[in-house]
Amino acid sequence: MKRLNLQFMIKLASFILIAFTVTSCKKTPLNDKFNLDVTLEGNSKFPTRGFIAFRQDIAAPKIITLDTYVEHLQPNHEYLLQRAVDPINVVDGNCTSTAWLTLGLGLTPQTILTDSKGNGHQKLWRDLSSLPSGSDFDIHFQVIDAVSSAVVLSSNCYEYVLQ
């Protein structure tokens, strides 16, 4: 009986966290164009989803951290996070670029490995010091299967400004 209650509480807490993530704004309220809360949604009938906390550290303003979570994907499998950006300073809220760049640890692509339940987490980062501060662009994300390159999760379009 206690095991069932514990399982119920874990599922309830997971549901509340996911519901908060899905219903939260696309952007964080303080620096809404500098830090993004990106929701990833699956393309299948199964409840696959993900989340990226896209942040600029004030101490290292042109280093972007991408704290990435995926849920309910294929268990014990590797995935890659990609982004595509429209031309800098051409911002219309409509992401049209299909020039996907695989993200990772700096310039080195890094996979996201799921556990036995199909959930995974990876802290990624990207150095944007080659771009001028104030650069403004539309950006969107996708997660692909590392073996087949099939898109399993994708995001809406977000506006981003580099500090």
Q: Give the terminus-to-terminus CA distance.
A: 53 Å
CATH superfamily: Immunoglobulins
CATH class: Mainly Beta
Helix content: 10-25%
Say how many strands there are.
Answer: 12
CATH architecture: Sandwich
Could you state the order of secondary-structure elements as H and E?
HEEEEEEEEEEEE
Q: Regions with pLDDT < 50 over 5+ consecutive residues?
A: 15-30
Number of helices: 1
Short description:
This protein is mainly β and 163 residues long. It has one helix spanning 2-23; strands at residues 36-42, 49-56, 63-71, 78-85, 101-102, 104-105, 108-109, 112-113, 120-127, 136-145, 151-154, 158-161. The termini are far apart.
Overview of the structural elements:
The chain has 163 residues and is mainly beta. The protein has a single domain (2-161), classed as Immunoglobulins (Immunoglobulin-like, Sandwich). It is built from 1 helix and 12 strands. The protein has one helix spanning 2-23; strands at residues 36-42, 49-56, 63-71, 78-85, 101-102, 104-105, 108-109, 112-113, 120-127, 136-145, 151-154, 158-161. A hairpin with a 6-residue loop joins strand 2 (49-56) and strand 3. It is globular and about 40 Å long. Residues 15-30 have low confidence and may be disordered.
